[in-house]
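Quick one, tokens below. Sequence please?
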């Protein structure tokens, strides 16, 4: 089923976030679920002595990006728990600061696992960082070199764009049309 023109062309601005306690990646795209347009990306470099100061800088950096680019949705990568519990805790706290910044601005936040993001962007849940970076550049027709944190953030945004577009098409196709209602 083909969506009505108004829904097909409805683009949503999405902020993707790859959280980190030292570098948090941000990527902004416009997506209608099928076509994605690169808007901007940047790393938020957090250089502070203490963890609370770093978390404040993550919060302020995300808030600044939200004010500058006015996204309608935020997508954040879920914490990947590795062998170093201290690193995982710091990452989780940076993630919390990023989510708090989005929620404070009244934005809906969706979360995606690294495996889900790789699956959505590359087609394989075990894709390498290089494969993700390559596909992000291809999918967004982005000519510039992207830092790993930027590419990861854009991959998160792309995942949300793909899922949002798919869900929109599913909802639209499940609505009864005049033709379907006549048969009942």
């Amino acid at each position: 089923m083909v969506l009505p023109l108004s829904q097909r062309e409805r683009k949503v601005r999405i902020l993707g976030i790859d959280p980190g306690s030292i570098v948090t990646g941000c990527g902004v795209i416009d997506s209608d679920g099928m076509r994605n347009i690169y808007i901007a990306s940047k790393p938020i470099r957090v250089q502070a002595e203490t963890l609370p100061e770093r978390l404040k800088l993550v919060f302020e950096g995300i808030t600044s990006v939200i004010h500058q680019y006015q996204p309608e949705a935020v997508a954040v990568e879920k914490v990947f728990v590795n062998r170093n519990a201290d690193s995982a805790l710091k990452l989780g706290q940076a993630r919390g600061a990023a989510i708090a910044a989005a929620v404070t601005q009244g934005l809906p936040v969706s979360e995606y696992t690294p495996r889900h993001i790789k699956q959505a962007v590359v087609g394989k849940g075990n894709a390498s960082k290089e494969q993700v970076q390559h596909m992000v550049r291809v999918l967004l027709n982005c000519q510039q070199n992207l830092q790993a944190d930027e590419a990861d953030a854009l991959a998160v945004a792309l995942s949300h764009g793909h899922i949002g577009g798919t869900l929109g098409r599913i909802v639209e196709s499940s609505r009864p049309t005049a033709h379907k209602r006549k048969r009942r």
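Residues 10 and 115 are 28 Å apart (CA to CA). The radius of gyration is 18 Å.
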